[in-house]
Design brief:
- Helices cover 6% and strands 68% of the residues.
- It is mainly β.
- The model has no long low-confidence stretch (mean pLDDT 83).
- A hairpin with a 3-residue loop joins strand 5 and strand 6.
- The protein has one domain.
């Protein structure tokens, strides 16, 4: 189940339910139980490091660095890369994916895709992909 709201921004939250067999009054019944999904903002803050320089943005995910030429965006770049105003979820190939926007100016930014896996009784980040938008 995906819930979304916003005015000019897009923020959504996701609720995942697993069906579990539970005994109720001596009868075995299938019951939907909500499973925790790790917050995409928390995943980004924990796993993605960013740096803005006058002519380029550097995004580091794990040990991999991505460099983006942002010279064409000057003088309108922000001081920081902002994430959090665009978050949406989708199911693709039976996998939960969060898509989260990152902006460096009113006209430029990137998108990160977080693919989740079920581990330790919750959905956690399995893969974080970076997709520059130019």
């Amino acid at each position: 189940m995906i819930k979304g709201t916003g005015t000019g921004i897009l923020e959504r939250e996701v609720h995942v339910f697993h069906i579990q067999n539970q005994r109720i009054n001596k009868e075995l019944v299938e019951v939907p139980v909500e499973v925790l999904v790790d917050d995409p903002i928390a995943i980004v803050l924990k796993n993605v490091k960013t740096k803005l320089l006058p002519n380029k943005a550097i995004i580091r995910i794990g040990k991999k660095n991505f460099k983006i030429n942002i010279k064409h965006l000057n003088p309108n770049i922000y001081f920081l890369i902002y994430t959090g105003n665009l978050i949406y979820f989708e199911i693709n190939d039976n996998q939960l994916i969060a898509k989260i926007g990152g902006q460096i100016s009113p006209a430029g930014g990137s998108r990160g895709d977080i693919t989740y896996m079920y581990k330790d009784k919750m959905y956690q980040a399995k893969l974080i992909k970076f997709n520059p938008i130019e």
